[in-house]
Amino acid sequence: MNSSTGLRRFISGPPSAAQAGAVPNQALPDQAAPDHARPDQAVPDQSGQAQAPAAEKCDLCATEVPAEHSHLADLDQSSLLCACRACYLLFTHTEAARGRYRAVPDRYLADPDHPLSAAEWDELEVPVGLAFFLRSSRQSTVTGFYPSPAGATECRLDLAAWDRLTAAHPLLGAAAPDVEAVLITRSGQGPSGLGPSETAIECFVVPIDACYELAGRMRLHWRGFDGGAEARGAIAEFLDDVRARARTLDQES
């Protein structure tokens, strides 16, 4: 199995090494990143005339898929695959293909009645104000990652602290292993959108293709030392979309 598991596909490498989804010295195939994580633009041919982008296809059966389509997590290759509806539904059963492929859900969850306090966030010792946390079913571990202009950087967690917080905040334990992540953000962060803050802390469960999307936005829009206005706007737009999609945890009961 590839040594890079889960969100490790985002670990920082040179910004020019590959598109979103690269790991050091190993770029994932272009189709491994969702369409919204990379620019969708016409490419000029040899005559200089713009040609329409090639149609997206299912990575398993080559059926054409629409711009908005589902994804599968390949646990052996630590990659994300585009999927037609039939292939996606096949792998909603965890025993299919001996568990190699997992359908990525499209749910977003929030639990606004049980927010983390600043002291609880500090227990995790994550040095930024926006991070994802993913549980690996194969390694039985939780790892944190925060997006950066070069991909995503891994945060080593105090797992005892994570377990204490999960006991007090059910949302943190609600993410499905391998295919969903817990997103924690401090609203109204510093100038880069990733700095410390004393304001409210929000938690969400999001599909991992949303993690691809944010990583792609960061690599595409980051400028200079603090990211610039375009990167800040991309982060704000992403978080607004997460908030709009999120259902409360009690609605899942």
Which characteristics define this entry?
single chain, 253 residues, alpha+beta, 2 domains, 7-stranded mixed β-sheet, 5 helices, 12 strands, globular
Describe the structure concisely for a colleague:
With 253 residues, the chain is of the alpha+beta class.
Q: Would you mind describing this structure in some detail?
A:
- With 253 residues, the chain is α+β, with helices and mostly antiparallel strands.
- It has 2 domains: 6-103, no CATH class; 109-252, no CATH class.
- 21% of the residues lie in helices and 22% in strands.
- The protein is built from 5 helices and 12 strands.
- It has helices spanning 85-90, 118-123, 159-168, 208-221, 228-245; strands at residues 43-44, 50-51, 70-74, 79-83, 101-103, 109-110, 130-136, 141-148, 151-155, 180-186, 201-207, 247-248.
- The protein has a 7-stranded mixed sheet with strand order 9-8-7-10-11-6-12, with helices on one face. A 3-stranded antiparallel sheet has the order 4-3-5.
- Helix 4 (208-221) runs antiparallel to helix 5.
- The chain is globular, with a radius of gyration of 18 Å.
- It starts with 42 loop residues before the first strand and ends in a 5-residue tail after the last strand.
- The model is unreliable at 1-41 and 189-197 (pLDDT under 50).
- Globally, the shape reads globular
Order of adjacent strands in the largest pleated sheet: 9-8-7-10-11-6-12
Estimated helix fraction: 10-25%
The number of domains: 2
Number of E strands: 12
Beta-strand share of residues: 15-25%
As residue ranges, the low-confidence spans are 1-41, 189-197
Our count of helices gives: 5
Q: What is the averaged pLDDT score?
A: 75
Q: Give me the Rg, rounded.
A: 18 Å
Query: Major sheet: size, sense and barrel closure?
Result: 7 strands, mixed
How far apart lie the N and C ends? 35 Å
Q: Give the class from helix and strand content and strand pairing.
A: alpha+beta
Element order: H for helix, E for strand: EEEEHEEHEEEHEEHHE
